[in-house]
């Protein structure tokens, strides 16, 4: 018992013998004189407590604080909460009457009311913060509990006695904050200082396993790195020395199997004797629910996913779907926060809600304006939350809704779908890099071979690759899931380089993943309007390209990608490899050395364009015409795909036609 921080209490209190016919006090368990920290004054106060209440009180002494950590009695005493007396006043009076038991000087001055509540059992619980001359004593509290009749049943406390220090600091909170930050950076070399979020200092008395000390307490959030933490640092308010530092990240790590049989680790929270899929470690609520086969969401019947253990989650129908949804929601949050400094989907730290097991054999997933819902699949797909790119796609609809608000029809709707596809690719690549597989959507969830959409070869997903193949239709809100193949291919070409399969236009080089994701994020959040069409999107990405610092050559690559898809008219300007430094002009009569030309089909040059280079001026370009040239249909007869037609052929029907509740896939 002593290892747990308190004295074992199998001893009858001094002055209280076993109950006999002539006893004057009830029997109770308590420490005795000679036990660590127990004083005769405490024992006298305890005996008075027993006699005056005519109850047998159990007293448990805190081993290090040496004051009562728990007092409890049978529910047979007189009610204290009568005649309108509040729990706050009743508790202060009660503790004050037996203050010697707590080694307390003045209950009225040392107990600062924190809160009071009545629970479902009609019990009243009141909590106090210990203070010294008005300054809170860190970690020192007292709570009293009353039954439905108003009788006090127990008191729990961590009370620090004998504090006698001055409360005037000699250093400022700003100086203390600098010391706290320096301590964290010294201890955590991998921490990015720019990502630290520090609170203002709060003056406290620190007395936890330490002589009472006036100090500043700081909370420093560092939850977006490889080693997430919420550091609570205590700095001596007189000397500036670090008194204490601990990680207050309060979630626990759970493990479970995803849909594809892969083990995943994720953050959950405790709830009673079990656990719930609620992750607060990132500073926002990431909550995952189960619709249990109904078409409902949170607040409509879906309930938060629970488990009695940390290692077994979501093992019923569609096993693992909630595990994937919860894990990947965290991945999406981390990506937007780390790469784009966006705090959750709404940009303001709003909750990220996911609902797994939506409907019966439901072959879809959607964003409804408040959160995500995922079906368990049926004829075409496995549970849709198994695809990280699908999860990222859907949550990105939320980002678009809160920023550009692209109208979900015709070209703006197809651009809306394309933006979600594009960030599905970027987010999956940031988590699991693969420059080939990550350019397809939903390859992990299809029951047949193939994928939902293919950026490099849109025809594999029954999509057009250029404006000459634009599909004019009244279905699917004007073909939003079909015509998104055009900006999808433009995004692929400007990132990787390659050849448009419809126009055969070659984009010899790409700008790389990092530049492309920043370009598209800025275009969507700063330049796209609600009804932006493809031509306007091309112009928006050019504006964004300048903003994010792309060189003239890299801007030409972006422009060439749109020209390759026919969204912008005209020939591409000469392009050079962004990863290769520009070679100075050779002296007259000499030929400049040449760099190898990459395969124009794939754009693979074996390099990573990670730094801007100074470029020589590009030749003058002819005036661009931005008018799109739609045609009467999408020619898929020349598709090189095999075995994907039936899956992709149902795409428009499955992913968008019946989404009457703002469902988007």
Written account of the structure:
By secondary structure, the chain is of the alpha+beta class. Among the domains are: 2-157, no CATH class; 173-247, Nuclear Transport Factor 2, Chain: A (Roll). The chain is 26% helix and 18% strand. The protein is built from 15 helices and 25 strands. It has helices spanning 40-53, 87-97, 99-102, 107-110, 173-187, 321-340, 388-402, 410-431, 476-479, 485-496, 513-527, 534-547, 552-564, 645-649, 651-657, and strands spanning 58-61, 68-72, 111-118, 124-132, 135-146, 152-157, 197-198, 202-206, 213-222, 229-236, 242-247, 252-257, 263-271, 274-276, 278-279, 286-290, 303-304, 306-307, 352-356, 365-367, 372-374, 440-441, 453-454, 498-499, 506-507. The strands form six sheets. A six-stranded antiparallel beta sheet has the order 1-2-6-5-4-3. Strand 24 (498-499) and strand 25 (506-507) form a beta hairpin. Helix 7 crosses helix 8 (410-431). The protein starts with 39 loop residues before the first helix and ends in an 8-residue tail after the last helix. The model is unreliable at 1-27 and 584-664 (pLDDT under 50).
Describe, in short, the structure shown:
By secondary structure, this protein is α+β, with helices and mostly antiparallel strands. Helices cover about 25% and strands about 20% of the residues.
